[in-house]
Design brief:
The structure holds two protein chains of two kinds. In chain A, about 40% of the residues lie in helices and about 25% in strands. By secondary structure, chain A is of the alpha/beta class. In chain A, the strands form two sheets. Chain A has a five-stranded antiparallel beta sheet, sandwiched between helices. Chain A is globular, with a radius of gyration of 18 Å. Chain B folds into two domains: about 170 residues, no CATH class; about 220 residues, no CATH class. The longest helix of chain B is centred in the last third of the chain and has 44 residues. Classes of the chains: A alpha/beta, B alpha+beta.
Chain lengths: ~250, ~425
């Protein structure tokens, strides 16, 4: 019963605000432990197809924000909707499935399984998400899709043919990670300082390639960083301290 | 399928530690199965120390005591059997053959056994095998000796050497039968039984070297030379024990009872097979201890594996985070690691089993030659299959331990691990 109600509420909401990819409302979360860290976000929205830069110094709660966004943790209070769905309503395993269906994630570094081939690394999300697998299959055999994506991200075929990910430069690794995040066209690309290990030139090139591919599948991109210099590449820049309240230490 | 392939690739990526872990488990499995093989081999060799003999007769005593001194040359007889009793038993209608055994002297710690030529044909061991001569042959002259292979090897004797028999059974003896030296007439092939450690002489020779002795010492002024003794009557007055073969096995209990009830002197007749079983029951405690130790070695190897997986877990948090970020559930992570433990153990068990059989195949002839221990190369028995299966099962369970830790970590870390 509850699920039905929730489902109808969901469609209603989608009808009302069709452009929201993500929305936070009165979210409150406390990391458990001896030195709790509390993050409160009154309201936050990410539009479909929007490229957003989230700025914040380290320790400001960026990781917590991303954990909430990707459904790694569930807020104590409030609502987080992704594609119109409240993730807190899903079970753990269903959230894992939901995450891979809707998110492509790029880490700061060490994105790849060092022992697997580039193609296998890129294809990883398709093993866990039937939705993304089906979407990828529409474009052809998935290996070819992965190869095309890698060459679109400026990795030449000799590099792609290399069997192991560990032999790549950091810049190349990040582009493979981008290909993995993009394959099967998820609606939201989450990037956690993906360019922090790259120099300025490579950084610009990486973002250009990433955006050209994300635009092709009309995915939103949310990237966290402490580097304000990246702002010109994005549609919108948000400072974390402007939307969130963070508190460290025991609650009174 | 890809996940299985990734698990294998991940293991391959850490192949040095993985190979070492597999080897440790393999060694422990080899030990476990090897101990089992040696145990069975030893038990069979032991039970086959003497075969073909239906009864052993000695002065009245416990069956173990009689078995120990007559077959294993351990300990001493409580009393002797008179020559008349021996002849009475020999003349029983059911008796096919009888071989006298006379003990009490030694040579450099090896027991000297007085017997007759029938001994070499009637004493059987290991599935009815007969003794054979490595060189020389049975005794022809009064002062001929036939020595076991250990005696020949340890003392460096060859056919034709002179040896002097000492009175008593200590390894160092001050009273020797120096006036009547023996000649090594034959050396027996290795048997893996106490025969290897025995010096065999004729019953008459035992009588001859003691003819001028009384109360365990030579009588002064009454010495009889080796040549003189040949002309004397050397019929023994007493022997220590006798091996008896019957015409029909069915008569065993009847003859045994008759000997036990013998009126002239208190005697005991034992069935060697039964007494050997009894003795193995005593020795068998050590066998249990061996099994316990090898089981503990297997447990240690599994612990080593858990340690290995746990130590690599930290460097693999990254791997877990990546898998979680692409939608792997904690259960997948759990399964991956448990599978890894199971896989490593399975590989160890397979390598260990194959290794053991290869080792057995290579070492079997050598072990047989050197220790007289025949190890059977049999297929695995059902209980061994059960053992191996439970080791693999334990490996899976042991793999769950780090897996549970990884599960907790992957939940807590989420995908935000920074290394």
């Amino acid at each position: 019963m509850n699920e039905l109600v929730a489902a109808s509420a969901m469609t209603q909401r989608e009808g009302v605000r069709p452009l929201d990819a993500v929305s936070f409302a009165d979210v409150h979360y406390t990391w458990p432990g001896p030195s709790p860290f509390t993050l409160t976000i009154e309201s936050f929205e990410l539009q479909r197809g929007e490229k957003l830069l989230l700025l914040g110094p380290s320790g400001s709660g960026k990781s917590t924000f991303l954990s909430l966004l990707a459904g790694i943790v569930v807020p104590d209070r409030g609502r987080i909707e992704v594609a119109g769905l409240d993730m807190a309503k899903l079970s753990g395993a269903a959230r894992d499935r939901f995450r891979v269906d809707h998110f492509g994630i790029i880490f700061q570094m060490f994105n790849l399984l060092p022992y697997a081939s580039l193609i296998d690394n890129v294809l990883l999300p398709l093993r866990f998400s039937t939705k993304r697998r089906e979407r990828a299959l529409r474009e052809g055999p998935i290996e070819d899709v992965a190869k095309r994506l890698l060459s679109a991200l400026d990795l030449d075929s000799t590099v792609i043919a290399e069997s192991r990910a560990s032999s790549l430069s950091v810049g190349q690794q990040q582009r493979v990670a981008a290909a993995r995040a993009l394959i099967g066209a998820p609606k939201i690309i989450v990037a956690d300082e993906p360019t922090s290990a790259l120099d300025r030139n490579t950084e610009g090139a990486f973002l250009k390639l990433l955006f050209s591919q994300s635009e092709e599948v009309s995915a939103s991109v949310i990237m966290v960083s402490h580097d304000e210099g990246l702002a010109p590449h994005f549609d919108r820049t948000v400072r974390l301290q402007d939307i969130a309240l963070s508190k460290r230490g025991a609650l009174s | 399928m890809m996940i299985v392939r990734l698990a294998l690739q991940s293991l391959l990526n850490r192949w040095v530690t993985a190979v070492l872990t597999v080897l440790a488990i393999a060694m422990s499995v080899m030990l476990l199965l090897g101990v089992e093989k040696v145990r069975t081999g030893a038990r069979e060799s032991f039970a086959d120390t003497i075969s073909g003999t239906d009864l052993i007769v000695g002065a009245r005593s416990g069956s173990l005591n009689l078995l120990l001194y007559s077959v294993f040359r351990i300990g001493n007889a409580t009393n002797n059997v008179t020559w008349k009793s021996y002849q009475d038993i020999a003349s029983m209608p059911e008796v096919a053959w009888i071989v006298p055994l006379s003990l009490g002297d030694s040579h450099h710690g090896f027991r000297v056994l007085g017997t007759n030529a029938d001994y070499f044909t009637h004493y059987k061991f290991r599935h009815g095998q007969s003794m054979s001569f490595a060189s020389g042959g049975p005794f022809k002259d009064l002062f001929d000796a036939v020595i076991g292979s250990d005696v020949a090897q340890q003392l460096g004797y060859k056919v034709g050497d002179k040896i002097i028999v000492a009175h008593g059974v200590g390894s160092i003896s001050f009273v020797e039968h120096a006036d009547k030296p023996f000649r090594v007439a034959g050396i027996l092939a290795k048997t893996g039984t106490p025969i290897d450690r025995t010096v065999h002489v004729s019953l008459e020779a035992i009588e001859a070297i003691h003819i001028d002795w009384q109360n365990g010492a030579p009588v002064p002024g009454e010495s009889v030379s080796a040549d003189q003794v040949r002309k004397m009557d050397l019929t023994p007055r007493a022997i220590t024990a006798a091996m008896v073969g019957l015409k029909s096995k069915l008569a065993t209990f009847k003859v045994q009872r008759r000997i036990n009830d013998y009126q002239e002197e208190p005697l005991s007749a034992i069935m060697p097979g039964v007494a050997l079983q009894e003795l193995w029951g005593l020795v068998g405690t050590a066998e249990t201890a061996l099994s316990v130790v090898s089981a503990m070695v297997v447990a240690t190897a599994l612990l080593g594996m858990v340690t290995m997986i746990l130590t690599t877990l930290n460097e693999r948090r990254r791997e877990m985070a990546i898998l979680r970020s692409v939608g792997a559930t904690p259960a997948t992570v759990l399964g991956l690691l448990a599978a890894e433990g199971g896989l490593l153990t399975l590989a160890g068990v397979v390598v260990g089993t194959v290794g053991l059989y290869a080792g057995l195949w290579l070492a079997q002839p050598y072990i047989d030659r050197t220790y007289g221990l025949s190890l059977a190369i049999d297929p695995l028995r059902p209980d061994e299959w059960v053992k191996l299966a439970s080791i693999v099962g334990a490996g899976f369970l042991a793999g769950l331990l780090p897996a549970l830790r990884a599960y907790r970590l992957s939940l807590a870390d989420g995908m935000m691990v920074r290394i």
